[in-house]
Amino acid sequence: MDKMHVISRLIKDGLIVIVRTETELQARRSVETLIKSGIKNLEITTSVPNALKLIAELNYEYEANNVLIGAGTVLNETTATVAIISGAKFLVSPFFDSKIAKVANFYQIPYLPGVFTPKEIRNALEYGCSILKLFPASDLSTNFIQEIKGPMPQATLMPTGGVSLENLDDWFIAGAEIVAVGGDLTHWAMNEEWDKMYQTAQNYLKVIYQIKSK
Q1: 3, 40, 43, 89: which one is catalytic?
Q2: Whose C-alpha in 114, 121, 170, 183 is 20 to 30 A from the C-alpha of 93?
Q3: CATH number of the domain enclosing 108
Q4: Per residue in 93-136, pLDDT tens?
Q5: Helix-then-strand count for the chain, H and E
Q6: pTM for this structure?
Q7: What whole-number distance in Å separates Cα of residue 127 and Cα of residue 93?
């Protein structure tokens, strides 16, 4: 799947689920549960034990299921390179880093950097980033997207951090085309409440389907 196809798929689906757990087993079970619920785009953070090995294994296991598994919390170009070699379909970081952007561009892998200010958004766009992680979104109002879309309508912003079922509508109404959800969905892994994770994921998919169908 080429770079533009991945970007188009992510935007069309409108959701990336961030898997950040204390153990490798919790991460694996989370991915299994989320995929069963219908989730198609997952970000495994490098803070998960053996994350890059897990990304390689999961991409192999679920390749036929049309699932995209990327690497999150990518903090430098070395990790970016290893993640890509491990099969990550996209890279996500909490900030913009030009060296990571260059690695991603070289391998033609989407890079979704964290941005918080108009200057950071401009820099990321100049390096060819098509989806920008608005982080932490919990510190911003939905009006931020509306204001940025004025001078930079080409910026595709992905609110991350603080996104919930309660405010999902608000972010999309403000102009977001995609959101990333972490703890609100995956905290169920802590006590292995997989049925609740499954149901919560389905609730997200239902709301996003309704939004995207309007």
Answers
A1: 43
A2: 170
A3: 3.20.20.70
A4: 999 999 999 999 999 999 999 999 999 999 999 999 999 999 99
A5: 10, 9
A6: 0.96
A7: 14
Which single residue is written with the structure tokens 């170009």? 77
Supply the pLDDT for residue 213. 86
What's the confidence (pLDDT) of residue 212? 87
Distance CA 154, CA 180 (A): 19
Total domains, the chain: 1
Site of tokens 């390749």: 63
Find the catalytic residue in 3, 40, 89, 133.
133
Which DSSP symbol is given to 89? S
Rounded Cα distance, 11 and 178, in Å? 6
Structure tokens at 146: 């509306």
Alpha helices in the chain (DSSP H): 3-13, 24-37, 51-62, 77-85, 98-107, 118-126, 143-148, 168-174, 183-186, 194-212
Active site residue 43: yes
Domain that holds residue 51: 3-212
Which residues, given as ranges, of the chain have pLDDT below 50?
A: none
- Of 136, 142, 194, 196, the C-alpha closest to 168 is 142
Give the model confidence (pLDDT) of 198-214 as tens digits: 999 999 999 999 998 87
Phi, psi of 4 (to 5 degrees): -70, -35
Residue 53 is among the residues annotated as catalytic for this protein: no
